[in-house]
């Protein structure tokens, strides 16, 4: 132990002989403390291979910006290890340079002190296999630790030394992982689309941005859907298994032709539209159902948008490409299968949860569904004794939708660029969680943020299926000058409210415009002066959806738009306008809206129906156009009424229309 400018050199014990390392190219002998001390005291590193020195700060001294760490005999792996050890120390030790020295022909090598700060590269943990092209992008700007197959405990042990984590679908990034990171983890990248394996609430709470790679595997998923379609129609998997069992059964595996058959594409997003293009190339007649897809986009590729019932009842093949949301969960159930054409064939490369798998087995057994080809399942992997997987009329693959060389490389590059950009502080278009808003602005606007999302969510539920949303106008009424009112987060939350109920996209201030553009939404903002106090950010917010039909005609304003408006009262968001009807109801609960003839006893009749169904009513409000004329009754309920209860409400003679809004 020899002091050098107030610092100490601590010779760590070395093993008797180090194993040969392909990156090192040399073997190590025992290091002698005296030799180390002599070398350091003379500031020289000698060529003989028995000397290895690390210059570290002593426990009692503060780190120096000119400290350096030096290794003999070309040890990049050791250099990286020391960087990580220094960064992980508590308190962290800043080391401005780690230099590696190698003997050159017996010459003496001098270790010069570092002359300035060198920015520490971020450390990125890759916990599942990632394409080499993506790894190369990462290695150019970060230290990359590829550790595949980690247990949950091993992941929690590694994560405190990492600035970013990249996963696929197999790694569960739970609250425990974020807690173990102790604030260092800044970005989680999901190499793919689905983020079910990442705890978004915990990520947001711990200030960690989550990004995904939603575009690179679109074509691969569409191609796999077409592959399953053709393989199922011609019994390819079953015939292959038969031949490998030593059989020759030509007559057993007679298939069906695709030409002239009707294919219903359920969900007309990126993958669904690509499947439609390819199916038309096979000579199929293609229809599609997506209540929120623009009709002009479908027409551009020769596809007709139809209702859900028409799609399932008239098609020979059904290909599923819808997101898994509370609305679509198990949407294909016994009742749905019963309404299909007998002998229909189903393909699913989207989300397993949209099919009730037990119901599908029953439909296959009865012949209602002739065949199914599945790449996704409710539980993955499914049970080995799964009746669905083992069914002779089912073709299955283990979630291979994105499994092509090109897609894997594309996803790897996309997620690598997104993670590195986020680490540099750039706004990520594919971010899927917390809004990035200054704390002061967020604090002031927080009740309006809730109002904005509720209005967007309410407005989209008033749109009739199949009409497609194209234009959104947001009107802010405020006493403040435009430059004193930051509406970015309000616009983002309205976009979130409109898009999230009808898709699997997570929307925030980072990706709101991107998400809107992807769905063909044109969003405009207008500010209307208000004679009030500038201490109050906003008087009201209006949301207009243009060129759409409404399932609740009263929501249509005089200008022909679906229009809703709201205010914040005592910190609580309120709905104040539906179409041309003034109302005043809290947006804290689910709402039933009824248009009726204004007459006595209506509140009691509807209240009795809900009470008999054990549905708790927490408020009622009535807005009307005049005495004994048209009125809107808004009813706040704690529970969602069942179909029978809602039907009874609709059968009340004076009620002309009603709608249930899940907020």
From TrEMBL:
The gene is At1g17745_0. This is D-3-phosphoglycerate dehydrogenase. It is an enzyme of class 1 (oxidoreductase). One of its GO terms (biological process) is L-serine biosynthetic process. Pathway: Amino-acid biosynthesis; L-serine biosynthesis; L-serine from 3-phospho-D-glycerate: step 1/3. Its EC number is 1.1.1.95. It is found in: Plastid, Chloroplast. One of its GO terms (molecular function) is phosphoglycerate dehydrogenase activity. Residues 591-663 form the ACT domain. Its main location: plastid. GO terms for cellular component: chloroplast stroma. Belongs to the D-isomer specific 2-hydroxyacid dehydrogenase family. The lineage of its organism: Eukaryota, Viridiplantae, Streptophyta, Embryophyta, Tracheophyta.
